[in-house]
Amino acid sequence: MTVDTQGKVAIRTPDQRLRVFVSSTLAELAEERAAVARAISALRLTPVLFELGARPHPPRELYRAYLAQSDIFVGLYWQRYGWIGPGMDISGLEDELRLSHSIPRLLYVKAPAPEREPRLTAMIAELQSEGADSYRSFRTPRELGRLVRDDLALLLSERFTSADRLTDDSASPTSRAADRPRSRSLPVTSTSLIGREQDIVEVSKLLQSPEVRLVTLTGPGGVGKTRLAVAVGERLDERYPRGAVFVPLASIVEPTLVLPRIAAAVGATIEGARPPLDVLAEYLADELTLLVLDNLEQIVGVAPDLDHLLASCAGLTILVTSRSVLRLRAEREFPVGALTVPAFSDRPPMEQLASVPAVRLFVDRAQAVRYDFALTEDNAMAIVEICRRLDGLPLAIELAAARTRLLDPGALLARLGSRLDALGTGPVDLPERQRTLRATVEWSVGLLEETEQRMLAALSVFVEGWTVEAAMQVCDLTEDRALDLLDALAGHSLVNVDVTSAGPRFRMLASVRELAADRLTVSADRAEVERRHAKYFGALVENADWPAERQAEWADRLRIDEENLRVAIRWFLTHDIAPLPHIFRILWLFWQMRGRMPEGRLRWG
Fold it and tell me: Is residue 3 within 8 Å of 137, Cβ to Cβ?
């Protein structure tokens, strides 16, 4: 590649459509010429190609006229020296090279070339001996297209001058692009990230694994997927020539708009009727690139295009944040969980409470609205309980902490009967869908199909979880249909799955259950869902036939669903008391085994 430092050739602005002359043999490098033409056009320059010319003109006159009107020369060489016209002792290929000495030149030689003709070998050797020009090697048309695009961009940035600079003989040569500071793509965060240290390490390791090309951070709205993705991008930023490229997609609602947004973020130009997928695949090629695609859940239909990009671009890695999985074979899901809030049997030391990530987050965000706020002996347990009732969800904790501007933690705790509306509105720089906890949950639910929304509402009748069998009975579904819908809800991060020795058990975050319960309340199915729930758990007790040696296992089974049993009994007390005597007789044994007789007498005696 030439690097002409004479400073005498001024390159005009790109909107004046600079003409780039492409020199090569035609037949053997047809694909390469097409790739170079696309690269030139992508930079809004005009490719000048012999095959586009007026054929009645003699070849030598045509290429010489074109070359005289061109601003940049691109030479492509492989094995053939080219045709020698009548009255000439050199080929048109070499003639074009000699005539181009007064303009910037970019030269490329294809390898391997086992059958290179002697005169072309001599021409390349002469270039090397003169030392005026250097050249770059390439193997494929796509690699060549990327090289030409990058080299042209660099050449323009180094040579682009105003009219005033044309007369400035003291101007020093500009530095190469690699020496200029790289623009930052990742958003600059304004708050600290708490409790995600291990997640950052694990996701970074995943992305650095050779066999992993696509990682999707999944989780409910407000769990902190974007903040985690940005932190991972910052950790890996220096590993990629253009840095981690952050692409915000929350405002995109059509999958067809995703690739143009990505192209704009990486600097690729889409012109004419060329598919964005082809443009991106050629632009990214094999260069190491990390794309951070944020908020993809409403446009997961773009997943096949992302899969095609991964297959076409060997250096590409993608980190996605989404409330829904993409369901691609290349995908590695990384569920981002809420912050854990331990259950303390006794009041622990203040140092232990202060180290709980959810508590640290609450205190940090409370200090943002009250500079003198501190964790004390008086408010510590109230803060722990607030974080527990909010399921450790970071957005909910941040919204609650903002309420300390008006309420102390004890008073705030007393107001948490309705989680969705008790926490108020968050900062105005949050996305609209995250200004309130209700808006966050409604955004997720709004992405569901109607049948999925109905099932979510029905599942809100459960307290502290349910099994597949319970979901089948209460929602009146076959096992296959229940599994399909539960899988869809889990894929949208609205249902969590716990793997236990007795099989999978499902549950919802309290905020999700609250919104789903609101929808069930106004649903025509409410009465029937509540009836089926009561009948299922009533039958679970009535039909218990556990041998003596398995009574402990039986008691554990009832303990797991004790809250569901309480809801069922309340239903029987209101609607059908006939089964209750038998149910209470069996539960009496359970209360005895668990040492819960006083509670049983208090609740049901």
Answer: no
Three-state SS for 193-256 is CCCCHHHHHHHHHHHHCCCCCEEEEECCCCCCHHHHHHHHHHHHHHHCCCCEEEEECCCCCCHH
Residue whose C-alpha is closest to residue 445's, from 384, 489, 395: 489
Mean pLDDT of 489-516: 85
- Phi and psi torsions of 245, nearest 5°: -100, 110
Q: Give me the helices (H) in 447-525, please.
A: 450-459, 468-475, 479-491, 510-521
Q: Are 122 and 129 in contact (CB under 8 A)?
A: no
Q: For the whole model, what pTM was predicted? A: 0.65
In sequence order, which residues have a C-beta less than 8 Å from that of residue 304 and are 6 or more positions away?
none
Q: What is the bridge-based pairing of β-strands 496-500 and 331-335?
A: unpaired
Q: Is the pLDDT of residue 7 over 50?
A: no
CB 309 within 8 A of CB 198: no
| Measured CA angle at 248 (ends 451, 193), to 5 deg | 95
Assign residue 17 a region (left: φ > 0; alpha: ψ between -120 and 50; beta: otherwise). Answer: left
Task: Report the DSSP beta bridge partners of residue 160.
Answer: 11
Choosing among 1.10.10.10, 1.10.340.30, 2.10.109.10, 1.20.120.80, the CATH entry for 448-523 is: 1.10.10.10
Torsion 598-599-602-605 (CA) sign: negative
Residues written for the chain: 605
Gap between the Cα atoms of 278 and 270, Å rounded: 10
CB 285 within 8 A of CB 241: no
Type of residue numbered 245: V
- Please identify which residue in the block is written with the tokens 């995600």: 196
pLDDT, tens only, 175-204: 333 443 455 678 877 778 899 999 999 999
CA distance 24 to 34: 12
User: Closest Cα partner for 109 from 5, 23, 45?
Assistant: 23
The alpha carbon dihedral of 270, 276, 280, 282 has a sign of: negative
pLDDT at 512 over 90: no
CA pseudo-torsion sign 296, 301, 306, 309: negative
Contact 316, 268 (CB under 8 A): no
What is the CATH architecture assignment of 197-335? 3-Layer(aba) Sandwich (3.40)
What is the fold of 14-167?
Answer: Rossmann fold (3.40.50)
Average pLDDT over residues 42-71: 72
The helix/strand/coil state of 264 is helix
